[in-house]
Design goal:
Elements (H helix, E strand, L loop, with lengths): L4 H4 L1 H16 L1 H7 L12 E4 L2 E7 L8 E5 H80 L4 H72 L5
Antiparallel strand pairs: 1-2, 2-3
Length: 232
C-alpha cells in the first residue's frame, strides 16, 4: 500500500526530503576528488585518477596555491628540480674555491718555470758528462783487462792490471748511476713545468662541472613545468 508524504505528516516529510537530498548529493565530493586539479582538504591525502596517483598538496609552480589534487609526477619532478638547484649552489661555491686555488698554483708554476728549465738543463749536462766518464772508464777497464792477459794473470803485473780493471768497472758503474740520477732530476723538474697544462685542464673540468649542473637545473625545471601544469 503506497503512503504519500502528506499522509506521513510534516515531520516525516522533512525527514524524507532531507534523506533524498543527502542521497542525491552524497556522490558530489567523491566525484570532485577524482578530478585532477580539483580542491581537496586533507594535506598529503592520496587518490588515483585515470590510473595515476595524485596527492592533496599545493602545486609548487602556482603562486599562492591552495591544496588541490596534484599528479605524483609533478611532485617527483619538483623534488629533482630542488635537488639539482641545491647541488648547483654547492658545486658553484666549491668550483669557485677550486678555480682560485688552481689559479694560484698555475701562477706559481709559471713563475718558477724558467728557473726550473735552466736547472733541468744543468742536470742534462751533468748526465751527459757522467755518461762520457762512464764510457772512458769502461775503455780503461778493457785496456787493463787486455794488459793483464798479455802480462799473464798470475804475474805481479797481471794481477795489478786485473785489480785496475775491476776498479775502472766500479767507476763506470758509479758514473752510470750518477747519470741516471741526473736524468731523473731533470725529468722531475720538467714534470713540474708540465703541471701547468695539467692544472689548466683541471680548471676547465671544474668549470665544466658547473655548466653541466646548470644544464641539469634547466632540464629539471622544464620537466617540472610540464609535469605540474594545473589540472594535469
Amino acid at each position: 500500500m503506497r503512503i504519500s508524504l502528506k499522509q506521513l505528516g510534516r515531520g516525516a516529510t522533512l525527514f524524507a526530503a532531507t534523506s533524498l537530498l543527502m542521497a542525491t548529493t552524497a556522490v558530489i565530493p567523491a566525484e570532485a576528488a577524482k578530478k585532477a586539479g580539483a580542491a581537496c582538504k586533507k594535506l598529503n591525502a592520496k587518490t588515483k585518477i585515470g590510473g595515476d596517483q595524485y596527492l592533496c598538496v599545493k602545486n609548487p609552480t602556482v603562486k599562492k596555491a591552495k591544496k588541490t589534487w596534484v599528479w605524483i609526477g609533478c611532485i617527483d619532478s619538483n623534488k629533482l628540480y630542488l635537488e639539482s638547484s641545491a647541488r648547483l649552489i654547492t658545486i658553484t661555491e666549491t668550483a669557485a674555491q677550486a678555480a682560485t686555488m688552481l689559479d694560484t698554483e698555475i701562477a706559481a708554476l709559471k713563475a718558477a718555470a724558467p728557473a726550473d728549465e735552466a736547472e733541468a738543463k744543468v742536470f742534462d749536462q751533468k748526465a751527459a758528462d757522467a755518461k762520457v766518464k762512464q764510457a772512458a772508464a769502461l775503455l780503461d777497464a778493457q785496456a787493463n783487462t787486455d794488459n793483464a792477459t798479455k802480462a799473464g794473470a798470475t804475474t805481479t803485473a797481471g794481477r795489478q792490471y786485473t785489480t785496475n780493471a775491476a776498479t775502472w768497472v766500479k767507476a763506470a758503474r758509479s758514473y752510470e748511476l750518477a747519470a741516471k740520477n741526473f736524468e731523473r732530476s731533470a725529468a722531475s723538474l720538467r714534470d713540474k713545468i708540465n703541471e701547468v697544462e695539467k692544472k689548466e685542464k683541471q680548471k676547465v673540468n671544474v668549470l665544466q662541472t658547473v655548466e653541466n649542473t646548470k644544464s641539469e637545473v634547466k632540464s629539471t625545471l622544464q620537466n617540472r613545468k610540464q609535469a605540474c601544469k594545473p589540472g594535469l
